[in-house]
Fold:
Amino acid sequence: MPWDILLIFFVLGVIVPWRGRAKLQHLLAKPHVEPAERLSLYGSTIAFQWLATAVAAWRARAHGFTAAQLGLAIPERFTLVVITVFGTTLIVTLQWLNLRRMGRSASPLRGPLKALAERILPQSARELIPFVALSVTAGLCEEFLYRGFAMAALSRAGLPAGAVILLSSVIFGLAHLYQGRAGFVSTMVLGILFGVSRMAFGSLVPAMAWHIGVDLVAGVAGPRYLIHRQPITEEVR
Structure:
């Protein structure tokens, strides 16, 4: 595997998890996170993800990866639309129900989730708008990086499909290690689901839509059920 491709894998598998964990530890050390700090977090994350995507796309093109190899093709459009809409509806519903269940649960996991939600999830309409931009960015950029670029590079390296899906999902899970072990495992499982869809349909479109849906529900339902606030309709005073 070329050195520049390996360097991108190093960034995704080491630098991104370290950066996320360091930022979260900084936020958790504070008794309260100001709205401006959350907005800054959203903005810096958006910028970093688009930069990483641009670099990965640049090196992928330099090494001759095709749009189809990167999952950017759109075959069988009708089937893809049906799968995308149905899958998004299902995964959004399950995400909402899971957050509601966690909000009512007495599980020890609820405490860390509440602390995480209080610091990184939007708590006003002003914060929700950039969070939507962050969710769309994550859905597009992370799917390209982990299911497009990473899976294409691992496939070219000669790994079987199962190993490609698993390794890319582990790296994806590591990027969310700041959410703790449960976050790592749940994200890795989602990564496997997204990876299977990318292999099965030859496109990133379904996984991108599903990813965006999961993040948007977290931003809307998370504050409601984990912080015990009302749905975000106006500025929190």
The helical segments are 3-28, 35-62, 77-104, 110-120, 125-156, 161-175, 180-201, 205-226.
